[in-house]
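Researcher: I'd like a structural prediction for the single chain below. Treat it as a standalone chain; there are no partners to consider.
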Amino acid sequence: MSRLARFLPDRFTLLLIATVIIASLVPAHGQGIVAFGWITNLAVALLFFLHGARLSRDAIVAGITHWRLHATIFSATFLMFPILGVLLKPVLEPLVTPQLYVGILFLCCLPATVQSAIAFTSMARGNVPAAVCSASASSLLGIFVTPLLVGTVVASAASAPISFDAVIKIMLQLLLPFVLGQLARRWIGAWVHKRKALLKWVDQGSILLVVYTAFSEAVNEGLWQNTPLPALLGLVACCAVILALALLGSQLLGKLFGFSLPDRITLLFCGSKKSLATGVPMAQVIFAGQAVGAIVLPLMLFHQIQLMVCAVLAARYARRPETAE
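Model: Treating it as a single chain, here is the predicted structure.
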């Protein structure tokens, strides 16, 4: 039963599916969209403010002495993934709609997850301190790097022009609350640390709000009528292929640079994952005025696939004998 449970969706994934269904059956219209937009922006700003208050300055600068591992993880996250998305265009694009392919490229430009990357590294007995440093830094770097990558990769590979004004907008809506949280950490940092449940609630709640708003707009514009079932099945295949190649690439990089097994485990779980928590709010800003629902759909599918696959891999690494180090 425990093995089967690894392949079952978690509660948050079920909430995501429920949100998509509700948005498909009862989408927001007119002033409702405007109201949800404002509420969503405030929730996302609060989310990044709390992350800024929670993340210590030591965590941001820690681990610099292990720069080879961190540089490799960042290369896998911000270089290997976009290269895969572009080079696989002849294979991926025929399987999906143009908007879904834009979503795949956007997925490839995102930073790594924080919580799940660290959790899987810990479960697999990898280098947890390095995972904490890399995952946290990746999330922070993504605020700067992702909009630039999207403006370059998506505009060139998918012929979908992206305004670089989005970079400024991202900084105002995401980075500014993060910086304010860092400044307020002196007074509220301990309070935020003691209330991890609050951060999780804001984290998941803001994502659900963005997903409902985005899918409401997309449904109103005919998302499901313009997305045939073969394209959805093709999207699942695309996400699986990209994840498989990313996992393989992370393994090969770890062996190429001669990292220890715990470091290779950290590279595997931090270099192959993409952040839903960061990606959904970013998509709303970067692709404002476009079919955001279709663009975040690949990320939502990839998120669930990576959780299931990485859970199996982490359990396999956890079963190795202690002498395997």
